[in-house]
Amino acid sequence: MENDWNHKKIAVRLMVALLFLVLIALLALPFIPSGEEGMKRSVALVEYRGCYALDVDGKTVLYISDIQQSPDSALFATDHDSLACTTVYLNGCWSHRFWFFPSCHGRILTASPETGKNLMAAKANRHTGNFVAYWQKALADKEKNLQTQIQELNYYLDRNRVIDAGYNTIASYAALKIKEKEKVRQALAALGSIKKGQHIHIRPVNHYTLIYTDPQKKTKRMDCRLLYTDKESGLSMVQTHDKETPNWAKAQFFIPLKSGLCSVGDSVTVAACFGTNDKGFIAEKAYPSRTGGRLTKTSTGGILESNIMEGLAPTASPVFNKWGIFVGMSLKGSRNGKGTAYYGERENGKPTGYGILVTNDSTAYAGQWEQGRRQGFGRVTDSSGRQIDGIWNADTLVRGVRTGLSGTYKGEFNRFLMAAGHGIYTDKNHYYDGLWANDKRNMFGFSIDSLGRMRVGEWKNDRYRGERLLYTAQRVYGIDISRYQHDIGRKHYPIHWNQVRIVQLGTISKKRVQGAIGYPVSFCYIKSTEGTSVLNRYYTSDYETARKQGIRCGAYHFFSTKSSGAAQAKYFLKHSRFKSGDLPPVLDVEPSHSQIRRMGGSEAMFNSIRTWMAVVEKHTGTKPILYIGQDFVNRYLPEAPDIKQNYQVWIARYGEYKPDVKLAVWQLSPDGRVRGIRGDVDINVFNGYRDDFELFLEHHAIK
User: Fold this and answer.
1) For a 10 Å CB count at each end of the chain, is N or C smaller?
2) What is the pTM of this model?
């Protein structure tokens, strides 16, 4: 019996001793040093995507990317998956739940990206009625502006074809605007469905994803959920959905007391996926590494500050003391010192991997290096203080995104960090997609503003010059004539209508021509009358003969400042022919500035024009066309927006660039050559192709 009792006492003592040893081991676990690989394996990379949800009676009807942004910048969607949320990449540390007991279960300690989101939601929830009303009005205005832009884009696309420069660019942009308008329409429908008395609630929505590389070097993603956020430290705890910690991860024991193992000035090592706080960071190419520095000061919550550059010690990266013991999480790095210095990884003494080049206390470059050259993703700041995130190759910025106070440029750069090559610039009111040189729009490009005003064509040093057409046999050409094609000096010449064919487009300006010039004359305008007393004696014969050759004909009247619009319209109608299928009549307005002053000014002139157009439209059943020059467009047409809106324009402009107006016909030269006609002839091109011309005739020709 006594032996049994002794055996029991020995067993109890052994048990107590074993428990004591286990307790000692558990207490010692947090203080076991980590080697280089252990430090790297403690790092976790987390992707955060956040937005706001608008709930009505507990059901989400709309997602908004950011309620602090204006409707012009914010994104909307009726389902979460299709919304481009705010995306941030965060460093973190695999962490046990308890201080001294292995209990990770997929937990990751990271920084909270949601600062102020709950506050903004609470503020909006105090005035939900005002919030909904504001966004309804703002979105209605945005839908209207988008519709205007789409109409202008479609007008261009209707009048051009794939062979025209910029067609595909504009077609792609138009498709994006149509999709954007549909999303705005859906958002308006969701807001409009809210009924009086329903409960409205706005709440932040977050989504966390772990990004890691498996043993086969393949990038994997794993969904996570938010467990809690500590307001004092600004740290959040997230957990993988399956509550599993990958085999390669090394969880750390987060004990605030361990920060006492470090003092200001001590050496520390920070392990991180470098650059993860940069918005342009390529998460799939991230890899954990470490860098060393010294502790500058200790703050509450076990968060440490060091003199390591912030790009090398992002917030929420694990920090280890000089013995390799985990002592806390980084808060931020600091910048100090003058001159030029490099901080980061090296190989054979040369910057390789991730590193930061500092010049006089500011970051000259932060990103990837290879054998001393910038290679891969990196960030720089130009001489104007604008931030550029981009891809580098052999120390040269290939493509990037430059963000400034005025707007954002995305595209190619030269070695001086200036926009050069192809790029897209956007700001609150403008969009430009085209070519650049020395930070200015140069050569071909396309722009559109918030009011739908488009410019397609060539630019020089940020100044729009115009669209240079490509002349091909597929375009529709025409001529306009008067008695001066018959009477040249004292000689008279007939027009051989059975021979007419355009053989030269004029020599006043350069023209881009594809193939040989030998274009048929598809339409012809013939001067009929001028004022109330001048007749073209060749009008009737030219009209009848040209029609017999299958040429579409129309009559034009030369406007006079000496008689009323009504009298001139009556005279024109009396002496002109209007048969079925003929082109709409034209009013040719070419008064000098002094003539306009003598008739009573531009207001009197436009009143006379309005009268002529109205009388002729009533008689012929179709709207007349207004023929004007480029100087008239620039100086006078803005004073008569109703005329600009209601009537199609035929413009005389003899430069190499197409007029920057919505026109029907462009008179591109006064010195063209036409087989069958003696001397110079005005050459015209219809604004569109053959099917557009047929559609024009269907809607506007004399019935």
Assistant:
1) N
2) 0.80
